[in-house]
Records
---
Amino acid sequence: MPIEIDVAHVARLARLSLPEEDLARYGEQLGLILEHAAAIQGVETEGVEPTAHPLGIVNRFRPDEVRPSLDRGVVLEQAPDSTETHFRVPPALDAS
Amino acid sequence: MSAADLSIGGARAALDAGDLSAVELADAVLDRASATEAQLHAYLLIDHEGARAAAVAADEAIAAGTAGPLTGIPIALKDNMVTEGVETTCASQILAGWEPPYDGTAVAKLKQSGAVIVGKTNLDEFAMGSSTENSAFGTSRNPWDTDRVPGGSSGGSAVSVAVGSALGAFGSDTGGSIRQPAALTGTVGFKPTYGLVSRYGLIAFASSLDQIGPFARDVDDALTLFEAVAGHDPMDSTSWDGAVPDARPTLDAGPEGLRVGVVEEMNGEGADPQVLARYREVLSALESAGATLVDVSMPSIAHPVSTYYLIAPAEASANLARFDGIRYGHRADGETVEELMARTRGEGFGPEVIRRILLGTYALSAGYYDAFYGQAQKVRTLAIQDFERAYEQVDVIAAPTSPTTAFKIGERSENPLAMYLSDVFTIPSNLSGHPAISVPAGTDDAGLPIGFQLLAPALGEPVLFRAAKAVESLMGVSARPRLEEVAG
């Protein structure tokens, strides 16, 4: 059985604005893919540790030293909208 | 014969002997690209000026006696490897026009080695796909039959090496994206052990699976390319900080005494009969040459595709959150930041990328995490344990690379699940982080290339390359596709 998902909710979580008809189609396709993927739920994994890094490397730390970073002007040049010193965006907070 | 048809090893000898200049070699490769690109579309961008400048510098280094293995060698880069000042798009509208302010570590190493970067090759958008049909800028075509796909996602890199519009190329392999296109184009494609090549400056798809690796005409060249980019990088905290295993000394040790595992669960069942026949033929040839075939069972890799298509999209949904229209790339209008982001992403990403972001977001969302993503990471652990048990009995494991030869453009693009099943034999070594290589093993009746895959344990590059070279010695280097049919 294809799995039914609330695709509009998932799209909202993923910050994806999509036309209604596309949402319906994606929902159908995801249901079929998840039906196939659900096969792994039958695998016995009691007491098995999940894999994070295939070679088992854990957190690494480096000295906290001041080093040069990318030039601000060069970085801002690639932004769709910026001032001389900042990225510019529409209001993030409701002004009212 | 054009200089574009040389192997890297052959070109190196000619350059060092003074029989060929790096500028002549670059021109031969650029001419080959001019002759073939209209048909094949391997490249998204060719950097004529940069390539010629690098070739001039390479000739100076050769004259000064400071040349290394790749000095003056024309190389192509998959367009998810960031290149300073040279447009990098990941074949996505959302990054169209982006000129990165820095070089990725692998790119920087190649430049330092004196390689000539020819350009940026086509891929499935954000490396998500098995055919290049998901590129926002058009599909690459297979030079063996231009009605067919070259495989993917690193299809452009594979094509460039197959036809000589580069002598070597790099791609990235998350679920088979180097090995499958190598198999479908008659080239060698190698995915190193996870962490041996820095991912700094590789635009991330699935961080626990992604690995940069080379395409080459032959096994020696693939090793040369790998050696140029391997090694620990403080900029990638997942990179391996031990020594890079040296595969050179045992490269020509031959197949005698090699224990080759034939895995019950990866023995090619469900594969095209001709692919299967070639696979068995190579196994017999290895056995006749002194290798031992050993049957091994790995029950936990029974669901590789399901496991992969939960882990990879989950990681992708997190990685691709950075494409929000604020700092680079495409931006749509919006009254609020959230509206701007959602519209930018809805417009900027293609259907397969959206599908995977949705799938990954779902697999990570409250209430489903344990059942899908969490369970997949546990099944992954079981698969790794299966591999480790198998490698107690064998040195390498053999499998077909792709269950079929190159399929027709459009044949699978309407059925995502069918496309995903193209990866069934390549995914296990991404899940395990182990190295794997595809080497050419002849063609089917229609003349389409077939790949033979070898897998080895983590850091098992020496035995992997030895086995790959043994297969190459038995089966021969692939012929070139007939260029008169794709040129013009």
Note: The mean pLDDT of chain A is 90.
---
Amino acid sequence: MGKTWNNKAWFMVLPAFIVVALSAIIPMMTVVNYSVQDTFGNNEFFWAGTDWFKEVLASERFWGALGRNFAFSVIILLIEIPLGVFIALNMPRKGWTVSLCLVVMAMPLLIPWNVVGTIFLLILRTDIGLVGYAIDSLGIPFRYVGNPRDAWITVVAMDVWHWTSLVALLAYAGLVSIPDAYYQAARIDGASRFSVFRYIQLPKMKRVLLIAFLLRFMDSFMIYTEPFVATGGGPGTSTTFLSVDLVKIAVGQFDLGPAAAMSIIYFLIILLLSWIFYTVMTRNDENA
Amino acid sequence: MARINLDHIRHAYGIRPSAPHDYALREVHHEWADGGAYALLGPSGCGKTTLLNIISGLVRPSEGHILFDGKDVTHLSTEERNIAQVFQFPVVYDTMTVYDNLAFPLRNRKVPEDLVATRVKHILEMLELTDRADKKARGLTADQKQKISLGRGLVRSDVNAILFDEPLTVIDPHLKWVLRSQLKQLHRQSNYTMVYVTHDQTEALTFADKVVVMYDGQIVQIGTPAELFEKPKHTFVGYFIGSPGMNVFPVDVEGRKVRIGDATLDVGFAPKIGAGQKAELGIRPEFMDIGRKGMPLSIRKVEDIGRQKIVRAELAGQAVSIVVKEGADIPADPHVTFRDEGINIYADSWRVGREA
């Protein structure tokens, strides 16, 4: 009465396995391979052990870029989440304006990152760009190429313009799922506008806001294209984020070893943060 | 606590109503006594929730006025009307504790905290939720949540009326009885004017002193459960109240004589049927006797429901239901007679009385 072992099922998994292997595992193992070796060209490699990791972790350049990554994520979350919620609260609930609003809100989401960068470069030009011209005419010196603060404002503005509507749409979805009875009950209970927000809308939006928070955090932590297009990581290293730096080291300087080590550290950081968020979110579900 | 006057109220959800069918609520004109327990009973879509929302102020009527104790409140908001309403699905503030949920309507009205504590404690005891006062409301079961919704209505001692919109829909059947009798008891203690919307006749008949039966946007009858049973003003009331509902036959009326199929009955008065009006005779299954006399009957089926039997039969070419006692003998050649007190005559579905 033993079990019949049939391993044919493994063949069914094979196509998926091959795809994942080609797209993820093999490249990643290549990176691991690079991170523990050194090369002087000619396809000759020497064992380097953990030297590259030590070098990366000891470099101010790495910690600077990582710090900028966190600063950027925190800033855009602090702007996008409240702003998105505010927009969602003020979006219409019925009538033809709903679809109009949704379409307009969805538009930035459809634009590729590098195009966003280019659009902003054009808008900010003082000769043909509307915003650039306006700022210039007001006599405000705004130079994202030369001034780190202005460069940051530009990069943050791009991200806020690009992604706030994602937060708004998610928050809106949370809002429209609240049954009318809640608002009616609140009116009967004499609740103020703020109480309605604090005790009905915010708790009901909590779950979608967590998702919005997670998505925006992950995405902003991987920021690359906009600073690459708009500021090139400058002035100096002021907008050089981890990903930008990584590309500079790997493709610009062709230092494969340090770049690979940095990639792996970057990957581990994201993995750790994902795990933390996942734990927080699932624990929240259990309490609900 | 207030007397509620509904003064020629009509309501349409569309913009420019013209035909009677455009109105969700056609002409309601009634006075409801202070401290009364009223049930609005009717099928889905008959306008009962619309009427309730008009009373609470969530909906403005298209026409007419609503008065509390003689004061016109038609244009006042829900808060200003001082109304409590309990909805079909429980509404609780998830992030608050049970205590804070109950205190919320009072705190919003700037009631001093010591008074809040007294009121909330009283309500917690009444609803038997005292041991959960400090728990977060979101962990509760549906019926506990509904108790909280109810409690938020009851906690204010000065409300003009408490409105219930099918509040027991989500409650387990065995708890429905408990909550309903608690409500009834509460009404006796507090003397609030209560209006209770439901489509369940048992609920309406047990809760209310006066049942308001609605059909197709209008109130067809307001009466005590007994009145609704014995003298339904409209054939719809006959069908809707009672199980099985009233039997209705198309008849021809000539003076005091009423003809059903081949048989003729003397109803003891001359019903007034206008020219072109449809005449009908309504009789409840409880007022019919099966025997060897009367009109011939062909029996299709007998359902035994315990202490009674329901006989499904055919009379004058139409299906009828008759209620007989458990032990009653049903002859092989059955005939049926109508008891005089159970006979109602209808002209175009509205009752024409002996009095008329």
Note: The interface with chain A takes residues 56, 58, 77-79, 83-85, 87-89, 91, 93-96, 104-105, 108-109, 138, 149, 152-153 of chain B (CB under 8 Å).
